[in-house]
Amino acid sequence: MKISNELKTGIFVVVCVVAFGALAIRVGKITWVKKGYLLKTQFHYTGGVKKHAPVCLSGVEVGEVKDIRLLYGQETLVELDLWIREGVNIRLDSSAMASTFGLMGEKYIEIKSGTTSPEYAKEGDAIGSTEPFRMEELVEIGKKVAGDISKTTQDIGLVAKHVDEIVVENRPRINSMMENFDETSSNFRDFSDDVKHHPWKVLLKGKEMSREEMDRERAQRLLAHKKSLAATQLETPELSAAETTIAASSTKQNFIPGKKT
Predict the structure, then answer these.
(1) How many of the other CB atoms lie within 10 Å of CB of 34?
(2) Contact at 8 Å (CB) between 78 and 68?
(3) How does DSSP classify residue 113?
(4) Based on the number of CB atoms within 10 Å of its own CB, is 121 exposed (0-12), middle (13-18) or buried (19 or more)?
(5) Closest CA to 104 of 77, 130, 83, 135
(6) Radius of gyration of the chain from Cα atoms?
(7) What CA–CA distance (Å, rounded) separates 72 from 78?
(8) pLDDT digits over 1-37, tens only?
(9) pTM
(10) In this predicted model, what pLDDT tens digit does every residue of 113-122 receive, in sequence order?
(11) d(CA 105, CA 94)
């Protein structure tokens, strides 16, 4: 019986496929029946985990999500069956969490290993879970923070406005305080220079001045100080007619005819 070329080709292809399959099973140690055990865990929110999603223990893949179902009771829960391959031990106080490979990668279940004291979980045991962080919650937190910042900015604006009003209302008093400070600083500098060049004056009691004499001397110092400020600011060294009139009036009022100076 003569075998056609088509039949020869078919037999050759079948033999090659069988040989390749046998080699793959032998080298890769592939078994048709996977050995392992099932664990259960429950979530309020799984973040989009699907059936057959990987299950990892400390970052190492150890199984897959076998089934997902909803439980209806006092609250709606999502129960997952986690298939764990044989030889992998999960402690009873371990915690499962829905996570993602990378920023936009595949969803999977990460099992955080428990402590060393509890026993290992067995077929049908349940382990705890940690709820994944929802993006919606992050958006809500961001909105709340933005609202708080906006309110704080408005409060700061109101405080700044009130401070500005207070400064405007008390500007004459503030100017007077600054002038007094400048005068005190100038007096202290003059006193320091005088003591530096004439230290014996500290031991001698000088002539006491009357109130009128002190006021007159103060007016003269103020007038000299204003002239000095005007010269420093590259303005006209002469005082305005109004300031000269005020200073002269103050000197005239404080001067008592016939009194020794």
Answers:
(1) 11
(2) yes
(3) P
(4) buried
(5) 135
(6) 47
(7) 9
(8) 566 767 778 787 888 888 887 776 666 545 455 788 9
(9) 0.45
(10) 878 777 888 8
(11) 24
